[in-house]
Amino acid sequence: MRGVRVLGILLAFSSFVPDGRGGEEVSEKQPPIGSLVAPAGEEKLQTAVVNIQELFRSYYKVERAQEEINLERARIQKEHNDLMDRLRGMDQSLRQLEGALQATDLTEQRRLALEREKGLRIHERENLNYDRISDIHVRHAELNRKMLARMDVLLREIHLLVAEQAEDLGFDLVFDLDGSGTSQVPMLLYARDAADITPMILKELQKRVPPAG
Hints:
The structure is a single chain. The chain is 57% helix and 6% strand. It has one domain. It has helices at residues 52-58, 60-101, 108-169, 198-207, and strands at 5-7, 47-50, 173-176, 195-196.
């Protein structure tokens, strides 16, 4: 059984990360061009192309994973909003305390009690706000890490499917049409007689969608 090489693969995840730090490039080092050309007298390598981005977007597992990630992100945001509501309530209490301290008929004992209560509430608010900021950063970072790890697993599943299909179809090399290097220029600019097997892989992915219900 001969091996099939899938070359020039790139996938960007920036659409999943709202804070601008979710984007990751996944690229593979390309072999020298000369190594892809069969020496004279040897059988010509059979070459195909595929659009990994299109396959990835069409994979039903990717859509489901994105829905779950969005739900978790929404839950984190809701808890953050609840904390903000608590902080606003604490601010209102502090304003009321400040108003009470402005009264001219306060006894010294009462003034000291109000000042002490104000100090405690300010301290409580500062701690809560610090925890809020730290928590949301940590939770979003962890969610992004899990998202990238999960998407990487799904991408590998697509790579495996492409390799299996290419093997069955008799191809030796498969290039990613959307793969780009650090210059953002596609690795593959031209390939003579290269068959686009993207539609075939899309049909195979569609067959793997489990029935509804």
